Amino acid sequence: MIKIMVDSTAYTPKDYAEKHDIKVIPLRVLYKQTEFEEGYPGTFDAFFEDFLKTKIFPKTSQPSLETFIEEYNKAIDNGDEVIMMTISSTLSGTNSVANLAKEQCKSPEKVHVFDTMSEVQTMLGYVMEAVEMRDKNATCEEILAHLQKLTENSFVTFIPDTLEYLAKGGRIGKVTATIGNLLQIKPIIIFKKGVLSDKKSFGMQKAIKDMISLIPEKIKRLFLIHVANSKSFEIMKKMVFDWLEKKGNKNKVEIHEGEVGPVTACHVGPAVGLAWTCE
């Protein structure tokens, strides 16, 4: 059998993980002198309620080497091969630690570490593809080759409610953030193949429209996501469904809604976003 593992930044729903025997390995968050594991979607409300009041900037860290080794060895002892999917190596050291653990586990040849070159629900889309193929008796090599193809056109986009958190994280200057907020400039943050870029728009509704226009013609899964319960989520949701209706794609695309947790939220703050997988 193949044991599928993924780190917590895919924001895999707990019930889906349990149903499909997926091991989620959590990243860690240091906030107000307390360190905790990121957890599953549906467990973030208390953190966000406090985070948005205090605006203290959390720190994040990858899972420990020992955690990866332990999980790999459990799977190996069970007679499984492992596919471990990680957040992009350009964003986190998680992939490096996962690979180092591979070399130190019982049978390195049975562990395959896949750098998704992405984050959040695009990673979840890869997990879903891997589950489908595993359940049809595909080999690890076939699954990994397919996932590699998906990285060409699958990516994630965000529109922050405010530029404040991008400034705190050093992504933009404080003056730029202040002026941008006053002028209602909305950056559309695009993360594709490990590279972060952005497009600028004016006003939330125009930015959402521009973000929707980035969705490719042929798409298999579309994820409607929010960070910290953004007030713009319902607006985005309606605009996406209207767009799909006009395109005639509403019944052809697998649509999921999801939330993003503290590891990503501390960099963008409240936001709405879209993620997708397609070949």
Strand content bin: 25-35%
Average of per-residue pLDDT values: 89
Total helical segments: 11
Question: What are the low-pLDDT stretches, counting only 5+ consecutive residues below 50?
Answer: 170-183
CATH topology of the largest domain: Hypothetical Protein Tm841, Chain: A,domain 3
Helical amount among residues, as a percent range? 25-40%
Order of helices and strands: EHEEEHEHEHEHHEHHEEHEHEHE
Give the N-terminus to C-terminus distance in angstroms: 26 Å
The number of distinct β-strands equals 13
> What gyration radius follows from the Cα positions, in whole Å?
19 Å
Shape: globular
By CATH, the architecture of the largest domain is named 2-Layer Sandwich
Largest sheet: 6 strands, mixed
Quickly name the level 1 CATH class of the largest domain. Answer: Alpha Beta
Number of domains: 2
Strand numbers in spatial order across the main sheet: 10-9-8-13-11-12
